[in-house]
Design brief:
About 40% of the residues lie in helices and about 20% in strands. The chain has 5 helices and 7 strands.
Length: about 170
Amino acid sequence: MKILLIVFILLTSISLLSKVNASMPVSDKVVNAIEEVKRIDVIRFAKKLLGIPYLFASSNPVNGFDCSGFVNYVFKKFKINLPRASGEIGDLSDGLKPEDFKVGDVLVFYGFKDKTHIGHVGIICEAAGMKSRFIHSSSGNAHGVTISELGSEMYTRRFCKCINVIN
């Protein structure tokens, strides 16, 4: 019975998606598909860097990364040039609504001690609004490239905004 229900839900979802896609111009479908592949590729590449140690003011995977060095390095691989400093990354655009967060978007945080200046950045690897998970280079307990939860107290209270840098 459960299997039949799951099959019914899947078929209904596929039918609805095909109707939505049918109304979309072909050029928009291609652009959306390319963007989704790029977002997934960004995360695949970023995850290959898990465990690289934290090193202040570094964007070199051999030595280590600070947070903005990691974000900068990952996006540069995909020919997306971002500023080197987290504060400048935060200045790139207005924030997105949590329901619009996507894999590959950049999370911007205030500093650990200073709630008036940008002090940290990371990349969403699992989009779920304010419960998203993100990959970043942490100077905290992980002391390197790790995956954390935006919904944790540490990051929710420091959250500034989420921006889309993949167009």
